[in-house]
Amino acid sequence: MDVPEGLNEEYYQISPDILQSFNKFRPPLDIFMFMEDVGRIAPYYKVGGRLSKEQIEQLAGLVKDGFIFVSRKDHPVYVKHIAYQLDLVLIDRNLKESEIADIFIEALTMRMNEFLDQPVAAVTDKLWADLMVLTEYLWNDPYRIKALAKRLHKEHTLAQHSVNCGVLALAIFIRMKGKNFSSGDISRNHFDRLTAGFFLHDLGMSKIPLFIREKPKPLTTDERQKVDKHPMLGYEMLTKLDLKYKEIEACVIEHHEKLNGKGYPQKKSGRDISQLGRIIAAVDSYCAMITKRPFAEAIDAQKAAAMISQDKAYDPEVTKNIQAWAMTLKK
Known about the structure:
This is Metal dependent phosphohydrolase. GO terms for molecular function: hydrolase activity. It comes from Maridesulfovibrio salexigens (strain ATCC 14822 / DSM 2638 / NCIMB 8403 / VKM B-1763). Keywords: Hydrolase. The radius of gyration is 22 Å and the shape is elongated. 55% of the residues lie in helices and 5% in strands. The model has no long low-confidence stretch (mean pLDDT 93). The chain has two domains: 68 residues, no CATH class; 233 residues, Hypothetical protein af1432. The protein starts with 6 loop residues before the first helix and ends with a helix. A four-stranded antiparallel beta sheet has the order 1-4-2-3. α8 runs antiparallel to α10, α10 packs parallel to α14 and α16 runs antiparallel to α17. It is built from 17 helices and four strands. By secondary structure, the protein is mostly helical.
């Protein structure tokens, strides 16, 4: 069926795969049917109701023929629903890029929350599956990351910080690599693993007590020593989680190393720090600055980018690209 011009601005079609992901008798949002004889949309099901077995069969046929739509006004409901089956974004051709970005941020934050609360193999597998949906989405068009990078969380939690860093580090990596994606210089395995590394860089913080992570006052010497152990704690966790890949290891162990050798835990300096480590180190600091934390207000994105670019502890090529990205937010 040819969708009338302008219809997709207010509604979008749902596929059989999307329909199957809904509760069979009680879909989570209003459903509309296109009346071909009069060329307009009419209500088919209102949320809160219950479909009969006959309607369920009829609905499946109508979806297959392309006559069933949902309202873009219900996008927030749709985002929360599809976040539990993230691979559906690769199937649904009617979603806009901005809508897909909303879904990724919602889904990945939910998965990171689950993982950091319970970093065990079964939960790790679910997070990995969702990260692989993200890399599949970006592989053929890496610049899709821009829409996600404009949706960073504004408040700091460990999960939200991890998602912010994962998304922005990918955006910076892609900016730095440019056309190398299409030239074949970057393998899919490498891209998959560095993506996971960016998102998982702070997993050792899951072993730090919550009262320390969210303390609104300066940490004591003992508390600071506990926090400083989190890169090594995270590195040790990788073996148990079967995540011993060099890209992930670099991000986890090096994200607090500094070019001047004054970082931790290994006090590496200069080019002894891997490129992925240099990227996530600067991004980790920047993402902390631009979010509201228990002990500090958020700093304006452009101001934070200018501040970090003046800090000799970070790779100037990375901070230059962070500044360039921050400037795009003004447009």
